[in-house]
Amino acid sequence: MNITQVKRSALSAAISLVSLAAYSSLSQAQGELRLEEITVVAEKRAESLQDVSQAVTALTGSDLDVKNINSFVDISGIAPGVTIAKNEGFKTVISIRGIGNEANQNAVANPSVSYHMDGIYIASPFALQTDFIDVSRIEALRGPQGTLFGQNSTGGAINVISEVPDTEAFSGKADVTVGNYDLVKVRGTVNVPVSDSVAMRTSFAKYEHSGFAQNILSGQELDEANNISARTDWMFDLSETISLRVFAQYFNEESAGAAIKGIFDPTPGERKLAQDSNAHYELDSKIVGAIYEWDAGVASVKALASWQEDDILIERDNDRHSYLTNPEVTISEYSPETDKQTTRTFEVNIISNEALFGSVDWIVGAFYLDTEINISIREGLDSNRNGQLDGFAESFPEVFGGDVGFVSDARPQRESISLYGQTTWSISDSTRLITGLRYTEDDVNSKVANFFNPTPDIIQTSSDAVTGRLALEHDLSGDAMLYVSFTRGFKPGGSNLTYGNSDDGSPALVLPSYEDETINSFEAGLKTELMDGRLRANVAAFFYDYENMQFQATDPDPFQGGVANIAESEVSGVELELTVLLTESLILDMKVAALDSEIVADFDALDNVKAQPFFFGEEIIRYGLRENVKGNELAKSPDLTADVSLRYETTFNSGTEFAGTVQYTHRGGFSQRIFNNPEVDSVDSYDVLSLVASFDFDGGTWGLDFMAMNALDEDGVNSRMTDVFGVSATGEEYIAPRQVMAKVRYNF
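Request: output the structure for the sequence above.
Response:
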């Protein structure tokens, strides 16, 4: 099925469901039912989801509970066009509408989807590993955010919004979940009004389960969970118009590591693998933030500051196979890779409370980021192919005297500052014009050393760009809005950990630094609430002109992988979000996205899989293996994603409230890299069915949930990864297997 057929099928299904919903709803008395209004802060100010002229998916706290969403990976496929995967077992990579981080093996390269917590930009990709704790709402903004969100948001932005401390009443909640795979999850939250002007809200979660997969050679269980989350949040009402909120959040995980099964591992069963080395994983993630708000009358001032630190250690079998079962593979292990990232951010924005000249709402702001990364990689590699690791050489001249592994020590620092402003001009009662501009300066200073260059190289890059947004909104009626928009997005360049040279007669394909990438986005959308608020249908269609996309490239020099830029790509698609109150007790929720992506300019790139048989001294041969990737689809861009859920709610004569949810999620197949190499890149689609039954007693004081997640035990591939360094091995990680759980809840 081609993309045109996919889009037609998706739209036909959507139209059919809308018609069904209309037919069912019309049997209800007028005005008897209405969907709850959803408030978002996608444009820095609180407003109805239906009043925002961009594609936004809002998942409420109730949605998170009903769909058992505990982390970022759980959102994959649920928000239309959003694909979230774990690469290498510890790097969470978010793609929205086919735009993500294709340079994930470079610690300096920014993701294309920015992550925010309560409006504060979170710089480290390791922080994406943390569990959601005491979350009120998650907003997924699809499309480039060229004005209001920094530092980089060419694909979109995700804002996780926490519950706010309440000075009015003492309250709390707790729950305990048990299930197969020895699952035990304990969570608790307490809200304490310390005084009339001070409140504290503290949450804690402990989560563990045994491994979903096993290394049959060592007996080690993989894909286990063993983590702790904690958060304390303090609200100080300094006056009637001024408040200060201070919070600290901590996450710790120490486990055996992820199951990354080599695609040529002959071990029967998707969750069985054979690897020579055991895996180990440790993560400490800390965030301290402060939010100051002042209602100054004509405008509101908000200042946001943060300190962030993430510390990670990884050990793993880097060839993803065993020498015993695959003697042709070269043994490779990471022992270890360590990353530490420390970030400081500060942002201030001023938002109008009263329209200028009676018709212009405005916002101005500034953003500052300073982040430091300390990364060290030590790879053991059986270079002489004798079936064992003979020692560790740390410089190139010793390669042929024994074994050598990839060695890299990098100390990059990034500093970024932005100034931005946006206005909304009410041309008439039904028409509004939005204009926004953002100016960004970004500087990277890196110290990079590896076995080719034991003495650190100093690499400096600078970027500056003007981005922005132009949009026109028009109210077709009181419950429908049509919008069109143009947005320009920008992601700064940076430095590489390794890079090629031309001394061997082959031109370098990976340079010491890589360029900025930009995106021009054209979008049209329709937001509607029909049948007296019982049906909400939002549609968006978009086209991207994408320049200098950053991707993980290979150089003719072995081991010299890094980030390079593809000249021009295009992405187009259509999305539908539909929520319908079919009856007083029955709710339909559907989200569908169809996507098409293509590299549209000639570009020669070297596939490290094809280059792998050729080593040192064969750089010219490797260079000759370059291929033109024009016409290939972009990585991690599924043609179709869909999430459909049906929820039934009722109250028994006893007063017990019951809710049952059936959820179906489809994530289409995609190519894991821009090479579209059928040997390693093709990732199949998967379909997941989940069931939840909930009972609430005593007015919601007590609750009991029964859950069957991935009820049909689908072995879908969450992500596939081909290492650009070392042996270029390819491994894949699977979604969680069937999990049957029971949860007891208590609210006070």
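The chain is about 5% helix and 55% strand.
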